[in-house]
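Data deposition worksheet. Section B asks for the primary sequence of the deposited chain exactly as it was used as input, without tags or linkers unless they were present during the calculation. Section C holds the resulting structure in token form. Section D is free text for depositor observations; keep each observation to a single sentence. Incomplete worksheets are returned to the depositor.
Section A, Depositor: J.P.
Section B:
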Amino acid sequence: MAETIIKIDNVSKSFGGKTVLENINLEVKKGEFVTFLGPSGSGKSTMLRLIAGFLTPDEGTISMNGNDITKVPPFQRKLNTVFQHYALFPHLDVYDNVAFGLKLQNLPKQEIEQRVSKVLKMVSMTDYEDRDVTSLSGGQQQRIAIARAIINQPEVLLLDEPLAALDLKMRKDMQIELKEMHKKLGTTFIYVTHDQEEALTLSDTIVVINEGKIQQIGTPTDIYNEPCNSFVADFIGESNILNGTMIEDRKVSFIGHEFPCVDEGFGENVPVDVVIRPEDIYMTHKLEAAQFTGVVKSCVFKGVHYEMFVDSDFGHELMIQDYNAFEIGSTVGMLIKPSDIQVMKKERTCNTFEGVMVGSNQVEMIGAKFDCEDTGLAAGDKVRVEVDFDKIELLDNKEDGSQTGQVSFILYKGDHYHLTISTREGDKLYVDTNDIWDKWDIVGISIKPADMRIVKA
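Section C:
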């Protein structure tokens, strides 16, 4: 088993009272290519900066080779960082940029020349030593930034979205070069990106991060084929994410039909989420051979395959990718293999809020006061309030609601949207709706008194 080089124990970090990372635990093995993957604001770059020493955690420790480096300054850590914007010295040529760290160490001139020549060859920039770095293309500048980082022979190379500024073709070329470079060097790479395809292409291990928490750690294959929750399933590649019921071991119901599956241990008649990748739904004109049918609503050629949206016979919209085109408006049969059905436990089945009674028919929760049916409870009583996802109404006019919030996550579930609403106070609500909202919309929040289930805490 590979030796652990970086260990993060119970690390948390806040800025201005807002938690950016919460209780992070992670081990990075020597020689691994590990990618921190997540949307903007998820905390992935903060985690990289903590490892680099540019930030200090509020809680927890960071170790390298078994030694606590939590408060060790960056220049004393045996690692280097490559930034998105290169940070090259514009007044120095390529050679002097790459040699800069070695000159600071007062190494012999001959050794510096040999090492510079070696790393420039490794990044395919031989014969560029005398060039002005400002005359280089973005891809060439990034190669020089990487060469400057690896010439000091760091045990760990940190890369903070290093390819984000490049165009698509150059980014893909550099992905291949980075993978080859990692193989040649044998150095541990820790890479930050929000690009799912990039993470799947480069990584030995992917760490999926959202809202300051690690959602899943695994190989690219595991993350893609066995997502642990709906966020990971939605964020990594295209997915059909649907409400379902686990009838019993190896039998699940969704989109109005029962299907054999390979999952066990959920119990009987338990609500679940079901993930089906678009390439795993098989289409046929032979309706009698199908598990269910539907009508093709759109068909777009995507270069390698056709991407189609099909309305199933019980009204659920499915995304399907197939090498064959099916005519718009035609009725088709569809099949799904048991091994291609991924069943996940639901993270929650309703909203649950902690609150306090203002009076017998008013409760304060999620930072606001809501009218409720008479509970017989006294003012000041602490309570737990449950509200079903489809019983929260979102309003265009935020002034009309008892509280306001912002749409922070949208998940399409085939026949409705499942939204995450974040309030200014940091509370979260989960809403099922047929209305179309955009991410970051500000909405009013309204809950009818009869739709709250209130019990004394």
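Section D:
The domain at 351-456 is CATH 2.40.50.140 (OB fold (Dihydrolipoamide Acetyltransferase, E2P)).
The mean pLDDT is 92.
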